[in-house]
Q: What sequence folds into this?
């Protein structure tokens, strides 16, 4: 069983993961409308991944006899100034999620909640990977540049990254 404080914080994390899923799904739709098929596939996969993160917390809360709540999600943006700005938003959101996971870990440690501490270790590693991936994508976008033709190369590069990430997931 987790404390009331931890249950409330985990429910807030559920909301953050759900918002990320919807944000990334919106980004996938925008990419598709812009003809960026590789970016769209990448963002669809990211949206699915965030939903899985949310469900993982739901399941954990049931295991520890806490009540998981389905969150209300505020409206997410539906258009973006550029692919680079979109990925900057993704990176900023991932940093926010990382901070939230670290805050959860602080609660777990302060309450000697070893079960939740152990559960959160996976999220800590996952967030390190997510932030690194988004920084890498932003670095590639900056290298390719922002000319009209560069969108083609950015889209292809994101598709290559997405394929590599999918293969890595299949190997897990």
A:
């Amino acid at each position: 069983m987790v404390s009331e404080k931890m249950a409330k914080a985990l429910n807030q994390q559920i909301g953050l993961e759900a918002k990320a899923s919807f944000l990334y799904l919106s980004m996938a739709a925008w990419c598709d409308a812009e003809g960026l098929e590789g970016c769209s596939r990448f963002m669809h996969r990211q949206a699915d991944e965030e939903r899985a993160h949310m469900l993982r917390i739901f399941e954990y809360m049931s295991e520890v006899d806490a009540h998981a709540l389905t969150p209300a999600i505020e409206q997410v943006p539906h258009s973006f100034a550029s692919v680079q700005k979109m990925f900057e938003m993704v990176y900023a959101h991932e940093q926010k999620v990382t901070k939230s996971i670290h805050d959860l870990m602080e609660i777990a440690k302060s309450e000697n909640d070893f079960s939740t501490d152990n559960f959160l270790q996976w999220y800590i590693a996952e967030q390190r990977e997510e932030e690194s991936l988004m920084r890498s994508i932003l670095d590639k976008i900056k290298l390719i540049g922002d000319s009209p033709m560069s969108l083609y190369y950015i889209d292809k590069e994101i598709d290559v990254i997405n394929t590599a990430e999918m293969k890595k997931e299949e190997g897990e």
